Amino acid sequence: MIYSTVILEEILRFVNPTETIWIESKSKGNAKELALAFVMTPRFISKTPINNSPNVINGWVWQDYTLEKLVRIYMICLISEKDGTDQLNLLFDTAEINEAVALHAALPALKNPTQFLLRATDAVRSNMGSVFESIAFENPYPSLYFSELAWNQMVLKCIFNDKAIHRIYGLENRANQALADTLSDFAHERWAAGRRVPSQVWRLVPRFMNENLHSDIKKLEQSDNPRDILAAELVNKEIAQPGSTKGQWKELELPEPIYQA
Description:
Elements: H1 3-11, H2 17-26, H3 31-44, E1 56-57, E2 60-61, H4 67-81, H5 85-94, H6 97-105, H7 117-124, H8 129-136, H9 141-145, H10 148-160, H11 177-192, H12 211-221, H13 226-240
Helix pairs in contact: 1-4, 3-4, 4-6, 6-8, 12-13
């Protein structure tokens, strides 16, 4: 798939004539000129929301993007198609926060995406929430290319910081025993401190049940919190009939304070 073509089609749904002329003129440049256009984009392209976007490409969702962000991603794709790896690395090295968000969001569309794996795993460790979310949420790159260790670090950071894990593409598919065991340890620590665990995290454990996890689910069944009770019901249902709870975790995807006593 040539991502730049698909992205341009979406861009043309939202741009005005002046913006169209600017994009068309800049898209003809070489990698260095495209990199400059990437930096200059906010001066020429509006922040119009990309609402009602039909595009979901291999799990890559643009629904919450702005036009400016999508145009920047388009420029990144063109740089990649012109084998502009050096220019992309320079952009990563010098990016301000909004540029970094666009660069990481664009990773699934790059010609040689694995060349930027270290950049992606570094973003997981970022203290800038928007940069972390650009790689973690609605982005198929981690699911496709992260090691189990890097994947688990990303998911756990979401859980520790009360972020919405259901926005992680491939969440259930990349679930694993090490992650399930760590979640059990995390739950024991929180319970010992009189604190709650977000109920939807238990969606990651049904395929990896052991004595500790079975004990954890029994504890949920006895909880006074209806969310915990529902989580236990869904885990047991999934254990009995794998695949039967698809779509049934929606109720538990609503925000829930991780440190609620």
